[in-house]
Amino acid sequence: MVISPLRLTLVVVATAVVAATAAAVAGYAAARNQLRDGTLFFVSSSYLIDGSNAALDVRALRAIRAGDLEKGTSILEAKIDQSLLHLADYEIMMPRDLRDRAVYDDISVIRAYRADNPSSNSNPEVQAAIDRALNLRFPARQHQ
Known about the structure:
Structural class: mainly alpha
């Protein structure tokens, strides 16, 4: 039995379409699972961060309620510095068009507080990162 060139072309095209569709469906399913796993990782991380922050707040409040203002204040000061270390990379990590003015407004509140109450961290690298965060202003400067 001889297959005509037209019929052969149709069979090849149909096979290619079926294979491409199967590959697209498999790729979509794999990407969807990876996206789901990535999203769950970040959601899970946010719960871990909130739990850790709340536990530190509890330690600070217990110290303050017990009359140990120095310990309570120290914990809260360390949390501010920790947040500033994270914020120091905000403009590096966030595309210019996705930056949020609220972040800069929060930094201005922290900047005003730190003007009256400087960080006691003596590590020069940490202090440089804290200073970098405190110098962020809206509108964000462009990185070269």
